[in-house]
Amino acid sequence: AYVQKLQKLQRFDGSFSWWKGMDSSMYATMSVAETLARLSTMTTVDRQVGVMVDKAVSYLASGIHKQCERMRKREKRGDTNVRPSEMALNYLYLCTLNQDSRTFKISGQKDFDYLIDKLTHINGQLSIYGKARSAIILQRSGHKAQAATLVKSLHEYLVGKPDMGQYFDTHKAQYSWRDYRIPTQVATIEALSLITPADTATIAEMRQWLLQEKRTTAWTTPINSVNAVYALLMGNSQALTT
Questions:
Q1: What is the pLDDT of residue 106?
Q2: How far is it, in rounded angstroms, from Cα 37 to Cα 192?
Q3: Phi then psi dihedrals of residue 175, to 5 deg
């Protein structure tokens, strides 16, 4: 039923808007596409879900292409501090989640390769959230040594308490003025599960913190709630039966 509702909300160019009748939003489109792409990695979904994701990726690729063109122009002018935006980082994440997308391969490969190259040359300029997302992207795109280095760096910021599990207690974990630590925790759990799956103790304790956060202060937004559930169930669907 919700897939059908989303189909009606998706615009002809593949985008979504905040509310029906409003202009297209890359942020809203990214949020919907990312959630659907994650869902498709966890369970069998209706074919129309894949169609919606492909259309959304095509729309996002167009916006990212404009960003890449501006980045290339800055480089030609001699700017040596050209780096992917947060939206570009999320786009790379979505593309690596959605590697079988025909739309992505046709319309965005050149820009994807350009952004990956930029990401491999960023040193010491990432937040904890940025490091976690970058580790996932680099691991899935074949840069495994750099991904492992980022994961090692993530461990250096983790703190733990017996009743709270492991989490980040630093301003470097902040993602935005509203969301704060939930997206960072989720991204790190995903990075560890992908790159160091044998580190089950750390992953379990980070999931423990997510559950404690729900009990004590809530997950604050619907998007945070969806992301937290993803982090708790990713590779751990048996938890639903226990």
A1: 47
A2: 19
A3: -110, -45
Instruction: Tell me the backbone φ, ψ of residue 161, rounded to 5 degrees.
Output: -135, 145
Instruction: Tell me how far the alpha carbon of residue 227 is from its chain's centroid.
Output: 9
Low-confidence ranges of the chain (pLDDT < 70): 99-107, 123-124, 171-180, 242
> DSSP letters of 167-193?
EE-SGGG---TTTTTHHHHHHHHHHHH
Tell me if 67 sits within 8 A of 85, measured CB to CB.
yes
Please, which residues have CB within 8 angstroms of residue 106's CB and are 6 or more apart in sequence? none
- The strand ranges marked E within 24-136 are none
The reported pLDDT for the residue numbered 177 is 43
**Phi, psi of 121, deg, nearest 5:** -110, 10
Q: Which residues pair with 126 in a beta bridge?
A: none
